[in-house]
Structure formats: C-alpha cells, structure tokens
Amino acid sequence: MSLAILPESRATRRIAPSIPDPIISLQNVCKGFGSGATRTEVLADINLQLREGEFLAVVGFSGSGKTTFTKLLAGLEKPDSGQIMMRGSPITGPGPERGIVFQNYSLLPWLTVRGNIALSVDTVFAKWSKGERRDHVEQFIEMVGLSHAAHRRPHELSGGMRQRTSLARTLAMKPEVLLLDEPLSALDALTRSTLQEEILSIWEAEKQTCLMITNDVDEAMLVADRIVPLNPGPNATLGPVFDVRLDRPRDKTALNHDEGFKELRNTITNYLVSVRQQARDAQRLAGGGAKFELPDIQPKDLSLATKAVFNSPPTGR
Ligand SMILES: Nc1ncnc2c1ncn2[C@@H]1O[C@H](COP(=O)(O)OP(=O)(O)OP(=O)(O)O)[C@@H](O)[C@H]1O
C-alpha cells in the first residue's frame, strides 16, 4: 500500500536545524504501583526532553515500564514524584494535543473504520460543520489506505488494518505530540515493515513531534532522530541518549549496508545487553543473599523395609 503523501515526502530531505525547544519535559519522574509488600517501583528518576518536531524512540525490555512511561506522557497516569510539563505547564490529564496509539488497537468493536475515526473527530472538532468533519475523516481514511474497507468493523479487519485505523483515528485529531506505544509489535514482519515506512512518511509530511516505544533497535534506528534506552526494572531509569545521524529519507535495505548504521546498532545493542546482564547479576546477588533454613532430619534407610516387602509371602490374590 502506498500513501498519497509519499512521493512528496520522500523527496524532502530533513536538514538538521539547531536544537529545537522541548515540547514535553520530564524532571525526576518516579512511578510505582501498589503499597506495602506488593509495591512495585516501576520508573525511577526519569529525566528527558522531547524536542519540538523530533522523532524520539524509547527502546526497552519487556516489563521494564514502557507502557507506564507512555501513560504518564498521555496523562493517563500521574507521577508519584517529579514533574511532567508540556510547553511549560504541568500535564494533569489526557488531552487532544497528545494522541496515543496502543499496541492492541483499542477500537470500538461495534463501529466501522469510518465510525471509529469519526467518533474522535466529532469529539475534538465539535465546532466544525458536518461536511468539514466528514471530509476530514475521509482524508485520514485515505491517508492510511483504508478507503476500500471504511465500512468494515474491527473483527472484519486484519491486524495491520486495525492498527492503521487506530493510527488514522489518532492522527485525525491533529495532536501536537504523537505517542506510539509499541504500535507494530503485534504484527507480522511484513506488515510491520510496511507500517514502519508509512508512519515515517506520515511523520515527515505532518511534522508532528513523535515518541515511539519499541523493543526493536532496527525499528528505532529507521524512524528516530534520537534513541533512549529504558533500562530494565524495577526502578527503571533512562540510559544515555543516542543521536541517529542518518540522512532522511531512510531506506531500510540501504541502511543495512551503511557503516554508520551498523556501528550505531552495535553500540546500542551492546549497551542493552550489558545493562540486562547487570540487572540479572544484581537480581542473582539479591537472591543469593537470602538464607534458607533446612529442617534437621536424618534420611531413613528404606532398604530393609523394601526387602521385607519383596520377601513377604503372597497374599493369595
Ligand atoms: N496499574 C497497574 N497496577 C499495578 N502494577 C502495574 C500497573 N501497570 C503496570 N504495572 C506493573 O508495572 C510494571 C511495568 O509494566 P508496563 O506495562 O509499563 O511494562 P512494559 O515495559 O510496557 O511491558 P511489556 O513490554 O510487557 O508491554 C509491571 O511489573 C506491571 O505489572
């Protein structure tokens, strides 16, 4: 599938500007869940600035707190301590200026593709005329290549089509910041690859600030200007920021032969491997320190009892 916007955006090369202002900033953010013995400290001392117009990727391990991190930015969760600001004002809840796409599509099953997208558009642009809203919905259905399936309900769509609907629904709200929480990880490799390129094309055309959470270093390097690892939890912290200085538009096949790409991929992968090993070692040490008292029992010699059983006369069966 190709997008109407693709040829123009492909021809556009992004020229690295001077460092733009942060649109979202996180300062010393900590977040955990539960209390007492069941308390889990998920994120610890998170400091990050998301720059206006950039594509930032956060790569992390399973269970490290990636979704919690996205929910904090979306305003769906509140930090226990620290601050999250958007353009200098604290984020206190969800808002249409921050659109989020989850891994599991989260579409309303009784609405069609068109209905799902229209619901968001009608809510956010309630003051527009009916015709304006309708045209807007159709524009985004077309952008993600679903015009032929606009009348279908989620159960009649493939995983890729559902995720396109989800993406169109969020993009149609024209958020200033797009938060993508592992949007492609439930898809097969081929669909994932196509959608990676489409997300990139849309971002290049729309110039939104975009933060993508992923567990795939190659995916992060294809799309992002900067990559930040989320170290393993509990108390997951952010690692160093890696700048991805690769020309755009990026071609996946060509990148595999690019020396700069290979070097950066190795650096990031080695970093991730080493922090995971450190986390495992720390876990082992913590576990190894625990003392287990074994009961003071003497093993019984069962050989005599066994002999007695086998030597005893038959019972008349
Ligand atoms: N609402 C909640 N209540 C209690 N614990 C939670 C809650 N949300 C997340 N957690 C815990 O926080 C930790 C991090 O979860 P989170 O979903 O953020 O990780 P993740 O990196 O997105 O995981 P995955 O890669 O498996 O999607 C997990 O131990 C999870 O059980």
UniProtKB/TrEMBL annotation:
The record ties this protein, via InterPro entries, to: AAA+_ATPase, ABC_transporter-like_ATP-bd, ABC_transporter_ATP-bind, NO3_transporter_ATP-bd-like, P-loop_NTPase
Pfam families in the record: ABC_tran
One GO cellular component assignment for this chain's record is: plasma membrane
Name assigned to this protein = Bicarbonate transport ATP-binding protein CmpD
Highest taxon in the source lineage: Bacteria
Domain ABC transporter: where? 24-257
Q: What is its main location?
A: membrane
Q: Which Enzyme Commission number(s) are listed?
A: 3.6.3.-
Does the record bear Cell membrane in its keywords? yes
Query: A GO molecular-function term, please?
Result: nitrate transmembrane transporter activity
Q: Which UniProt keywords apply?
A: ATP-binding, Cell membrane, Hydrolase, Membrane, Nucleotide-binding, Transport
Enumerate the subcellular locations listed in this protein's record, separating them with semicolons. Answer: Cell membrane
Identify its membrane topology class: Peripheral membrane protein
Under which main EC class is this enzyme filed? Answer: hydrolase
| Species classification | Bacteria, Pseudomonadati, Planctomycetota, Planctomycetia, Pirellulales
Give the matching PROSITE patterns.
ABC_TRANSPORTER_2 (PS50893)
